[in-house]
Amino acid sequence: MLSTSTSYTLLTRDLTRTLKITADEPLVARETAYYRENITKVKSIDDLLADNRLFTYAMKAAGLGDMAYAKAFMRQVLEGGIDDRTSFANTLADRRYREFVKVFNFARYGETTTAFNRTQQGTIDNYIRQSLEEDAGQSNEGVRLALYFSRQAGKINSAYDVLADRALLTVVQTALGISSATSSLDIDKQADQLSDRLDFDDFKDAGPAGCRSSSNASQRCGMSTTRKAHRKCRASWRHSHWSSGSTSIC
Description:
The protein is mostly helical. Helix content is about 60%, strand content about 0%. The protein is globular.
């Protein structure tokens, strides 16, 4: 079996080509064609929820595929919108729900919601990327996490963004050698622990490479961090039990 770093490099060396291959897979191509042909016919929350194929596609594109069954919950998420800071979507810790409402903001745009590019090609692009990550995860969960991190890193502004996303937290904990047992600590203490070891302003420069080769041929996780965090990251790659198994991050 290929190592995580090798598998990741093979997938991302020409990411455009890799995504094209994913888009051409029969199931992905079929569902994408259906979505492209029908999404502009959706004029309301009721319309979106009534078409299970469209709704499931949209949910997977947002990384919420495992919640596609929860239509009553998602109706509540959508109906409240995000303009009101106290809306249901804005009170949820998982930011993916707010992102979903941004794309399908019927509360603000009504019947014109699906006329925007973010609802059409933007959602298609996200669906294909999600499909790539899921496919990679079937053989190596570490590659899936690395791909996910590289996609999300630029959106991280604080420790709370990491703590609100289980996948991101897994990557960061592993890279810095932080025990998963710390997740049972008070949320503010966890945030302080991460803030002490990471410079979140640098995450915006992490770029698309989830694992990059360093000059000494070791690997480092795809996050721009403080010097101390870089040392921890390299050490975790060498010594973590993930480094040689199918779930290594870097």
